[in-house]
Every structure is written in C-alpha cells, then in structure tokens.
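User: Let's play a game. I give you a shape written as tokens, and you guess the letters that built it. Ready? Here's round one.
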C-alpha cells in the first residue's frame, strides 16, 4: 500500500459524521480517521495485525462516504480494501471463496445453473413453507439472512433470453455495449430489460456480449485481486473487439469497478475501456428532451436512494434525479441523507448483520419520513437490502430500479 496515501490524513475529522459505522458506535476505531491511523501504525511497524485490529477494519463497508467528505483526498474505504487484498495476497482461497470466486463467477453458465435449485425452491412453494415454519432458525444464521434477502426470481436469467444485438429505433445515435451484471441478469432482469428498451427507444443499437463475465467487484471485496484482474482482462478483450460509443451498465457496483479497469490493468486497452464506461443514468440524461416526449403520466410519490457506488464512487447524483423528475404526474421528494449507505455493501449485510441492520434502520426511517410510495435506486445490492427492510418494516413502500420506473412511465 502506498504509504503517502496514509499520511495524507491530517486528522481533521470532517469524515466522521459521514461514516455509517462511526455514527452507530462513536468509536474512533470505527471511523475513517481511526482506520487510516490503524493501517498507518501497522505499516510503520508499531502495531501487529491482531484479530481485534482486523475486526475493526473489517467493519468498514467501503461505502466511500468518507472520500466524498475528505478535503485531502483520503479514501479510507479504498485503503481498507487495498489493505485486505495485500494481506490476503499469496494466501490460498478458502473452499467457499474458491467455489464462488473461481468456479462460479467467471463462468456465467455455471452461475446460472447454480441458481436453478433456488428457482425451483420458489416455484414449488418450498420458500413459502420454509418461511412459514421458520425452518431456517435451525441452520447457521448467515443462511437465514441470505434466504431472507432472496426476492422472486425471474423465470430465466436475462443473459439466456436476451437478443445479443438489438437495433435502435428511430434516429440512430450510436452503439452501446451493455454490461449485464450477474445480479441484474439473475435477479433484476426486468430492470435490465427496461434499460435496454429505453436505450433502443432513444435510437441506440445495444450489443450485449453473452460471453462477458462478472465485473470482479466480488473478488475485490474478498481481497482476491488476481481474480479481479482475470475478470477485467476478459471483459476488456470482449468489449474491446467491438466498435462502441459507450459501455453502459445499470448496476452501480459493476460501473464503479469497470471504471477502475484502467487502474487495475494499466494498459491502453483497459484505459480505453474504462473511459467509455457510463452508468445508464449518464447516457439517458444526454437525451432528456427525447425521453420526456416518450414518458406518460404516472401517479406516484417517489424518493431516491443514492447507491454508494454511484454517488460516492462515481460522483453521479444529479442525473438520476433529473430523470425521475421528467415523469409527468410523479411527485419527487428528497429523503434526508439520501447518499448514506443502506447497509448492503456486497455481502456485508450477511457477514455483519448487527451493524447492517442498524444502518438499514436509519435508512428506513428516512424513507418513512418522506411519505413516498416508492424508493428508486440504481444498484442491485441496495434493491435487495431495501426490499427486505421495507417488506419487514414498511410494506406499503415499494422499490424500483430507476430504469424500471422510467420504462413503466414509457409503457403507461
Ligand atoms: S480521512 Fe480526510 S476527512 Fe477524515 S480525518 Fe483524515 S483528512 Fe480529515
Ligand atoms: S468507507 Fe464508509 S464505512 Fe468505511 S470508513 Fe469510509 S465512510 Fe466509514
């Protein structure tokens, strides 16, 4: 890790109020400033990597709210992620990590096959039975958490059924390479279908290569940088062979990682790849007038939750709000701390359930205070977390991906 990045912290504390774990604990060790200080002391050889110390660091969600607040450009979340990668470098992956990160995620076919039992579990009514009887209480807690987060799955993963090359309608605007995230394809396929519909309706040809692989974000989260680089190389080579104006994704987590491929791989092709990556909201916002002409009234009160990967990692806040406001008949209301993490953070809500629930509860309170009927967001992790939280505590309020809401207005 670059020592200079650690000593840039001048300990001003401006990051403290933005950090979700500090807000819940008021512990310096659970703050961005404290985490940077701990990593610095380890590098300076004044602290050993004790279990307790690693536990403090692992409580970080990598939400990067601290980076937005820091006047010195310190990104504590990213530094903790780098620290984890360095610590794990050279270690053999655990059996479960090896299965998920190496045997499943780089192979979309296998990943899709692995989801078939989950789909049967839902279709055969077993999920309802298991939930009614509370059977999962007899199993390890993380299993119950994972099951609780599982929404209704689509009949088929979108990657299996989507047309690989979709022509644009009306005036031609260019060609988009669509990066279809694993979770979007497997779980939120309606949202990605809506994204493609919107892009083609605006005149873009949309090419979705079916051999693309996971963006590598789960590898980075687990400290598997070698796996991340392998995924990045494959995607750069696949999309690099196409003549594209943009590479678009509707998954905030994927977008944040794809934009870093140039940094991870450091060659011309990966830098060119990253320079073309856009969140779907960025491309749709280029065509507000044309989009507005396609939208029909929707009578809803909506609020917007900023995904950390979109607001803090990519700096995108205005575009999604502008797009929601285009919908005639829709009342838009801001929630307090819209860019505060919801507690999802990859698998954080499974690995650190107590802290994740505290963070989620704050978010639910902010949503409740708006009186909105629907929470709109742009990242599948947030959708999973909010869906579960709202179903348990505020069932009147629904969640929608930004493009689902826009497509709903377009098709109204
Ligand atoms: S990380 Fe940045 S904002 Fe936080 S204490 Fe250090 S310099 Fe200040
Ligand atoms: S990334 Fe988020 S949780 Fe981690 S130190 Fe920064 S604000 Fe806190």
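Assistant: Ready! My guess for every position:
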């Amino acid at each position: 890790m670059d020592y200079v990045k650690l000593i840039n912290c001048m300990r001003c504390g401006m990051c403290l109020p933005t950090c979700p774990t500090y807000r819940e604990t008021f512990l310096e060790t659970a703050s961005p400033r404290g985490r940077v200080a701990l990593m610095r002391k380890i590098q300076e050889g004044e602290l050993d990597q004790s279990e307790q110390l690693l536990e403090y660091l692992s409580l970080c969600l990598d939400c990067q709210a601290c980076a937005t607040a820091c006047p010195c450009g310190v990104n504590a979340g990213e530094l903790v992620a780098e620290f984890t990668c360095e610590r794990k470098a050279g270690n053999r992956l655990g059996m479960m990590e090896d299965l998920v990160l190496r045997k499943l995620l780089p192979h979309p076919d296998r990943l899709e096959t692995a989801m078939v039992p989950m789909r049967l579990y839902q279709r055969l009514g077993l999920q309802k039975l298991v939930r009614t009887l509370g059977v999962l209480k007899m199993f390890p807690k993380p299993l119950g958490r994972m099951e609780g987060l599982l929404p209704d799955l689509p009949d088929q993963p979108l990657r299996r059924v989507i047309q690989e090359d979709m022509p644009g309608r009306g005036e031609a605007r260019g060609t988009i390479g669509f990066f279809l995230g694993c979770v979007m394809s497997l779980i939120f396929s309606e949202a990605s279908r809506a994204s493609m519909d919107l892009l083609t309706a605006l005149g873009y040809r949309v090419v979705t290569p079916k051999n693309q692989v996971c963006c590598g974000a789960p590898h980075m989260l687990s400290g598997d940088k070698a796996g991340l680089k392998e995924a990045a190389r494959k995607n750069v080579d696949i999309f690099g062979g196409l003549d594209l104006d943009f590479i678009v994704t509707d998954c905030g987590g994927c977008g944040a990682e794809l934009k870093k491929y140039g940094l991870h791989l450091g060659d011309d092709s990966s830098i060119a790849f990253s320079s073309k990556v856009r969140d779907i909201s960025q491309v749709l916002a280029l065509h507000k007038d044309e989009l507005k002409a396609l939208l029909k009234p929707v009578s809803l009160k909506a609020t917007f939750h900023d995904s950390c990967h979109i607001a803090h990692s990519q700096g995108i806040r205005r575009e999604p709000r502008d797009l929601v406001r285009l919908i005639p008949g829709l009342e838009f209301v801001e929630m307090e701390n819209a860019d505060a993490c919801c507690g999802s953070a990859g698998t954080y809500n499974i690995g650190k359930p107590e802290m994740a629930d505290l963070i989620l509860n704050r978010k639910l309170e902010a949503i409740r205070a708006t009186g909105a009927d629907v929470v709109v967001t742009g990242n599948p992790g947030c959708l999973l977390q909010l869906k579960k939280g709202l179903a348990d505590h505020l069932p009147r309020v629904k969640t929608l991906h930004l493009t689902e809401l826009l497509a709903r207005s377009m098709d109204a």
